[in-house]
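new request in #modeling-help
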Amino acid sequence: NAGVTQTPKFQVLKTGQSMTLQCAQDMNHEYMSWYRQDPGMGLRLIHYSVGAGITDQGEVPNGYNVSRSTTEDFPLRLLSAAPSQTSVYFCASNVGPNTGELFFGEGSRLTVL
Amino acid sequence: AQSVSQHNHHVILSEAASLELGCNYSYGGTVNLFWYVQYPGQHLQLLLKYFSGDPLVKGIKGFEAEFIKSKFSFNLRKPSVQWSDTAEYFCAVLIQGAQKLVFGQGTRLTINP
């Protein structure tokens, strides 16, 4: 059972480039979310989805897009990368939004030069 | 806005010392509370959770936490730490109906052998 799988694990971008962080889960969880982790700031919610076709913004959505065409996949898109988006990104899923017990992927470390 | 505060940013202890990490949240309604742990180089995993009932909850690896509603606190404790407890610890709050888990800033715990 793979759980939550994120790719790539590491990425270096130049300012202005675009990229997509992939996230897939095989637990049939309805709820998926993206967080960024920065030193001293903990984890901050970027976007989340309560089911296929439904997404919503978290605390820090600017500069990021998401879509949820299937239950399994929840990609995070950076349309024009900025140095402020240098961070570690975690995708998470859980059975439903009110259980709180998240299953995290291994993280994607992104550096924007 | 709802927030979660972890008072200690970095705690350094010797093996066998007792541990208490503070967590306070600012929300007056019904909440569910969590502690997550991130070992070096790994993703976050659930340590323990409180939904209702006995306010003293026990988690994995000998950790426990006490929910004190009047103090809006959910402090994490362990009577005797081990070197393998070196990790970053995150407190998180789920506000019922909000569908979002809010994390604290994290506390880095270093255990010296």
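bot summary: The interface with chain A takes residues 4, 6, 9, 32, 34, 36, 42-46, 49, 90, 92, 94, 96-97, 99-106 of chain B (CB under 8 Å).
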